[in-house]
């Protein structure tokens, strides 16, 4: 199996004042928290958003592993809906010492390029900053961070920077080439 270099950039905000807003997209776009842990729904979002950009690390997770992860205090999934159809999501995970990671963020391919991504990222980041209000046992948020890589969409880094995220680390590693999994086998061309 061949490998290819993948660059991973880590970005952060260290104050709620760092968050820069995005214009709301046209149409009926709503963002709602998925409050009931649902491995089926979370796996659907993960595979549908990441299928064409080679998200593969969770494809082998069992139902029990998904449930265990989703039921952890401070893990939240916020879903963007366009006219009632899931368009994308942002997944937050509270960590130690007031850090919140945006673990996953993205749009289903059919919804990209419609200004939903910036709006969803800004909204999700705001929810990272106020996460402790919903989870009183958690330390108030002092830092929101994420990582993106050269396999992600071509506009990902610019969107993060437009929302006020600042680069704090860059790594290049060789990763095995993987076929594009799609939300089901063969959904997207390789």
Automatic annotation (TrEMBL):
One Gene Ontology term of the molecular function aspect: acyltransferase activity, transferring groups other than amino-acyl groups
Signal peptide span: none
Domain (N-acetyltransferase): residue spans on this chain: 29-190
Protein name per UniProt: GNAT family N-acetyltransferase
High-level lineage: Bacteria, Bacillati, Actinomycetota, Actinomycetes, Kitasatosporales
